[in-house]
Design a protein that fits this description.
Blueprint lengths: L5 H25 L13 H21 L4 H18 L6 H18 L5 H12 L2
Helix pairs in contact: 1-2, 3-4, 4-5
Length: 129
Amino acid sequence: MNEMNDEDRATWILNYVRAMQQELAELTDSVPWKWWAKYQEFDKQNAKVEIVDLFHFLISLAQVMGMSAEDVHEAYLKKNKVIITDKNQVIPPKMKMTQGIFKCLVKTYLLREASKAAQRDFFLAILFA
């Protein structure tokens, strides 16, 4: 993706952002958000599908910007440290686990290091943890 010029890069960023906005709308529709409508149900399976779609477009954005898995992970940790420092909080054990999952996800999908079976196993571990 580094061979993209700035005009193409801007076009693809907007394409992916628009796609993510649509996926967010679809995720919202998976949740019973209309307080006046009692007929709605929480579609957990569809919500999971929409979350995976969001990951796909988010990772595509990182690729358009020429970011490696390590770049994304370092930026995530740096930003997370700022957020935690700003709130004067200690990182809870759950957050440490989330950071590990995030790093695995980035490596698995941004670098495409894992086989399809390993990718499947990874997602099953997250969904049923």
